[in-house]
Amino acid sequence: MSAPGAGDWQRDVFRELGGVVAGTEQSASPPPAAAQPAPPPAAAQPAPAAPPLPPPAPVSVPVVMPEVRRTGQRARHGDPPARRVVRALRKGLSATAKDTETAVRLARAVQQPITTGRQIAVTSIRGGAGKSTVAALLSLTFAHYRADPVLAIEADPSLGTLPRLFGAGEVRWTFADLARILDPSMRVTDVTGYLLPFTGGGWLLPGSQGAVGAQLDLDAYRIVMTSLRRWFGTTVVDCETLPAEVARTAMTTTQARVLVAPATAAGVATTRTVLDWIGGLHRSMLPTTVVALAYTSPGMGVDPRKAAEYLGVGGAAVLPLPYDRALAEGGEIRTALLAQGTREAALALAAEVMDRAMSRGRGGARGGGTAAGARP
């Protein structure tokens, strides 16, 4: 028999547990004891994060496939044999002090000391104008005359040709690879391990391994250009054709720019439109711009002096780059085979660009807005 008051006790327990109790007194079994939650386990110390693994090294890819290389044409001299004979006779009989003075003056302009790295963008309004050839010629000229490190950057990764123009056998590390690897603690000797050396003591950073449709990320471009400036005195950037985003960025952030124009009526007219656009960006850009009037075939008859009058807007300089059989082949640039006129034009172009990169708007030493040299 239940002790007096037991029903009341059960009713109170059910009420606390939220149970429903009938109005009449009912016997009920006491509910099972509520399970007590287990105490939480002691907080485990987080394991130290493993250091990130370095990106896998890419596999080297040949610049020119062996079967294609075997079928390549024999390299030709830029000047025909008859012209070389005549030039040698004239040089031996009538070498003037003026010629020597001009060469020395141009060399000194290329060699002028710099305090911070100079970056020079090379671009054009369309493909086939000779943009990469001009970038390679400038890089080779700077590397020949300057004592500080010279870097050529291929910021045109889609079917870029700089490795082939420099005679590289294969490409391993590219622009995008270096952008992921660069670290503030790296030294120049670390960086050059990812670059390709070329004749004269310069270095080349390829844009890609020749993949069709390869793209260059704008953030990667900014990382590489900002990081490498402290190690290389002169950097020549072979950009995409305008109006690509990287090309527009390079045109506005470098100390000087070279706009390669085909020596045709259409090429000159289109290039003038680009110069008007450059002048609208900032008034200091045109005085630090040089137009390379490229003669890519022997039949191009645009007068460089008339072209200079039309293109020398706002202080831009216009210099011709004559047709050269050695360059027309499209293979490795061998400076010993270049025509004499090509070597002279490349030196004049490099001197003009360096002057403008250093002056930043004061104009070149050879007079802005005029074409240097004789008609090609």
Structure explained in plain terms:
This protein has 376 residues and is α/β, with parallel strands linked by helices. It has a domain at 103-153 and 233-359: Rossmann fold. Helices cover 39% and strands 13% of the residues. The protein has 14 helices and ten strands. It has helices spanning 6-17, 66-70, 81-94, 97-111, 131-145, 162-165, 175-181, 188-192, 218-228, 245-253, 265-281, 304-311, 325-328, 340-359; strands at residues 61-62, 118-124, 150-155, 170-171, 196-198, 202-205, 234-239, 256-262, 289-294, 317-321. The strands form two sheets. An eight-stranded mixed sheet has the order 5-6-3-7-2-8-9-10, sandwiched between helices. Helix 5 packs across helix 14 (340-359) and helix 7 (175-181) packs across helix 9. The longest helix has 20 residues, at 340-359. The radius of gyration is 35 Å and the shape is globular. It starts with 5 loop residues before the first helix and ends in a 17-residue tail after the last helix.
Structural class: alpha/beta
The low-pLDDT segments are: 1-7, 17-29, 361-368
In the CATH hierarchy, the architecture of the domain at 103-153 and 233-359 is 3-Layer(aba) Sandwich
The helix fraction, in percent, is: 25-40%
User: Biggest sheet, in brief?
Assistant: 8 strands, mixed
Q: Report the principal-axis shape.
A: globular
CATH topology of the domain at 103-153 and 233-359: Rossmann fold
Number of strands: 10
Give the terminus-to-terminus CA distance.
127 Å
CATH class group of the domain at 103-153 and 233-359: Alpha Beta
